[in-house]
Amino acid sequence: MLILASESKTRKALLAGAGLAFEARPAGVNEREIEAAAVMNGATPELVAQELAEAKATAVAGDVVIGADQVLALEGELLHKTKDVDSARRQLDRLRGKTHALHAAVALAVNGRVVWSTVESARLTMHPFTDAERDQVLALEGDAVHGSVGGYRIEGPSIRLFERVEGDYFTILGLPLLPLLTALRTHAPEVLS
Prior knowledge:
The protein is an alpha/beta fold. The protein contains seven helices and seven strands, in the order E-H-E-H-H-E-E-H-E-E-H-E-H-H. It has one domain: Alpha-Beta Complex (Maf protein). The chain has helices at residues 9-17, 31-40, 45-59, 85-95, 131-141, 169-173, 177-187; strands at 2-4, 22-24, 64-74, 77-79, 99-110, 113-126, 162-166. Strands 1, 2, 3, 4, 5, 6 and 7 form a seven-stranded mixed sheet that branches. Helix 1 (9-17) links the parallel strand 1 and strand 2 (22-24).
């Protein structure tokens, strides 16, 4: 049985869209604690994402477990999911007119041991939108943006705030799907049948 160590609606939809049968179970790891330890040890944003994905993959019991996480880096600082419309507004203001990086990691654990992991990155540039544009997008998005590390959803009305997007679509959504499918063919082909 394939297990996704997450309750992310987006990740579940991506796996379901690929025709995979799986069960979703939250990993229950302390992400901020893992992140803080990694940063203290000098980890790059990419390595932070990888450590989080691997921690999730090994935190859930199962034959084949997928762990995934995404880190947003802006000018060397890691940003996190927003909690409400005010924090989303502040986060978008920080991203306005700038380029930030999304680092999405995915790890595959077989019988409790990580057998594969990777990190894919994308660069996104927001145009210098007005406060009115920002507020209109947030009104259209509603609470959906609070599940995203950037306070936006590239697959929703938030796309209006962007000037340029460089990178794989699945990576931007938080799950490097094509490398994951390749890894499943190698390490757990039975979950693809």
